[in-house]
UniProtKB/TrEMBL annotation:
GO biological process entries: adaptive immune response; B cell differentiation; chromatin organization; T cell differentiation in thymus; V(D)J recombination
Gene field: RAG-1
Reactions catalysed, as given in the entry: S-ubiquitinyl-[E2 ubiquitin-conjugating enzyme]-L-cysteine + [acceptor protein]-L-lysine = [E2 ubiquitin-conjugating enzyme]-L-cysteine + N(6)-ubiquitinyl-[acceptor protein]-L-lysine
Native species: Struthidea cinerea
One Gene Ontology MF term: histone binding
Free-text domain note: The NBD (nonamer binding) DNA-binding domain mediates the specific binding to the nonamer RSS motif by forming a tightly interwoven homodimer that binds and synapses 2 nonamer elements, with each NBD making contact with both DNA molecules. Each RSS is composed of well-conserved heptamer (consensus 5'-CACAGTG-3') and nonamer (consensus 5'-ACAAAAACC-3') sequences separated by a spacer of either 12 bp or 23 bp.
Family, per entry: Belongs to the RAG1 family.
DNA-binding region, residue range(s): 39-106
Main location as per UniProt: nucleus
Protein's UniProt keywords contain NAD: no
Cofactor section: Mn(2+); Mg(2+)
Record's protein name: V(D)J recombination-activating protein 1
E.C. number(s) listed in UniProt: 2.3.2.27, 3.1.-.-
Length: 310
């Protein structure tokens, strides 16, 4: 209830109105303003009522909100009520609660996206088990699922593996299979043997070069679009683009050390990979660079072609 006394205008909770009124000692005819209970039960707080009683008490307001929503918001009552609620929270400086509610309304939830969690896991060099431990701890301590479980990360990871994105080359590539399936094969099949003919058995997961390249470019889509925007080249989305690639092959150390225990194994892990160094686009007679890898020697920008145990 708003206090009717001049220069007061304070809003008082219903039950505390009488107490507030008694503080205006100087006022004559105080009784005129006191709240009259017309018999029956005193009004209960709205949130303590049953759903049916809430509906009953708010029916007039609901009708007004519905009329407003139909007139202004295309009938979206939920959006109007949610906005009212957000404004009420922010008016009371409860911004944290308002931010969380807004995130849920926009379908973001208060948790991180699986792809973001995957990026965190890789950039902080956490193993799967270390990440899982952190995920469990955070969930237990906060009571909220901020990080996503491992299986969600694995699903997000599939989008980064060659063979995930459908594509076609124009003109079509000669002598290239259309099958993008990834299989476990002999990693050296099709490669001429080295001079010393060292007998080596390999087992490898090998990707098709064009499938790997398409996947790498798809992964960099946002950077490419940002580069085009920065150079005011929005009209050049169809290219042609010139992509400079650095190929590399590195040994990945002694695998036996990675497992920690058990007998020493003679295997070596080898990775054939490539890094997209830069992408440019021809504009008239000049070439404009729209992407350049800042850390070309970082293993974080190596795109896999073949992962092999020798």
């Amino acid at each position: 209830i708003r206090c009717p006394v001049k220069e007061c205008d304070e809003e008082i909770l219903h039950g505390k109105y009488g107490q507030h009124l008694s503080s205006h000692k100087e006022m004559k005819d105080r009784e005129l303003y006191s709240y009259i209970n017309k018999g029956g039960r005193p009004r209960q707080h709205l949130l303590s009522l049953t759903r049916r009683a809430q509906k009953h008490r708010l029916r007039e307001l609901k009708r007004q909100v519905k009329a407003f929503a139909e007139k202004e918001e295309g009938g979206d009552i939920k959006a109007v009520c949610m906005t009212l609620f957000l404004l009420a929270l922010r008016a009371k400086n409860e911004h944290k609660q308002a931010d969380e509610l807004e995130a849920i309304m926009q379908g973001r939830g208060s948790g991180l996206h699986p792809a973001v969690c995957l990026a965190i896991r890789i950039n902080t060099f956490l193993s799967c088990s270390q990440y899982h431990k952190m995920y469990r701890t955070v969930k237990a301590v906060t009571g909220r699922q901020i990080f996503q479980p491992l299986h969600a990360l694995r699903t997000a990871e599939k989008a980064l593996l060659p063979g995930y994105h459908p594509f076609e080359w124009k003109p079509a590539l000669k002598n290239v299979s259309t099958n993008t399936e990834v299989g476990i094969i002999d990693g050296l099949s099709g490669l001429p043997l080295s001079i010393d003919d060292y007998p080596v058995d390999t087992i490898a997961k090998r990707f098709r070069y064009d499938a790997a390249l398409v996947c790498a470019l798809k992964d960099m889509e946002e950077e490419i679009l940002e580069g085009l925007k920065a150079k005011n080249l929005d009209d050049y989305l169809n290219g042609p683009f010139t992509v400079v690639v650095k190929e590399s092959c590195d040994g990945m150390g002694d695998v036996s050390e990675k497992h920690g225990s058990g007998p020493a194994v003679p295997e070596k892990a080898v990775r054939f990979s490539f890094t997209v160094m830069n992408i440019s686009i021809a504009q008239g007679n000049e070439s404009k660079r729209i992407f350049e890898e800042v850390k070309p020697n970082s293993e974080l920008c190596c795109k896999p072609l073949c992962l092999m145990l020798a």
